[in-house]
Structure prediction request, 242 residues.
Amino acid sequence: SSLIYIFENVGRNDEKITKKIIKDCHNFSCANLNSVFIDIRTSKDTNFYPNSVGLADSLYKNDGQITKSEIRAITISKLEPLNNSIMWDIGGGSGSISIEWSLINNAAKIYTIEQNKKRIGFIRENIKKFAIKNITVLHESAPDILEILEKPDRIFIGGGLASDKGDKIINKSLDCLKQTGIIVANGVTAETESLLIGMYKVYGGELSKYSVSNLKKIGKLHAWDQQMHVTQWKYKKGSDAR
Prediction:
């Protein structure tokens, strides 16, 4: 069990040092002049995760609908993390973007929207695993739910754009986005790419395509295993439209 050491009135005649097991520390009082040292002791099953982005995909329970590690790191960078921000994650999938946004800014308020019941379960499990407290998970469909949410500073759209509601999701998101807020949308299908190209032509911003390959072992040899290309549109509200 983890321990706590309380150093009271150090250097005085009534100096006192107390050691206690943290879980047994109830209704404990000490001198106003004190210093505390906490000795955290963990079991072999305890996991620690860095407050970082681009964590391994294997850390997240998912059904394949996950923004891959390298693209996740790029995406969060493009979203330009902002202290005390409100962020929407539309098409949450595994919740990886929301979780890593929280890891680098635990004062943010995050709304993760996912219409698939099974993936909602994955998101909740992953949030629990990382002990995240500032994510609200919504089993809802965009764009319907967007109107009643707090207006966001940042929006990530990682799913739903290939549906017939894709343009409505983006347009409603832009309507709700705060001035100078940022939206980033990713897509892997030809249909989604066409939609994002169309948005770029109308609004401007940045349009990028990413390709990631990882070395895989094939028998005694090695070869590059290429992930699906990801087309990404970024737009800052208030910037010049085309």
Remarks:
- The first strand starts at residue 3 and ends at 8.
- The CA atoms of residues 58 and 232 lie 23 Å apart.
- The mean pLDDT is 93.
- The chain has two domains: 3-39, 57-236.
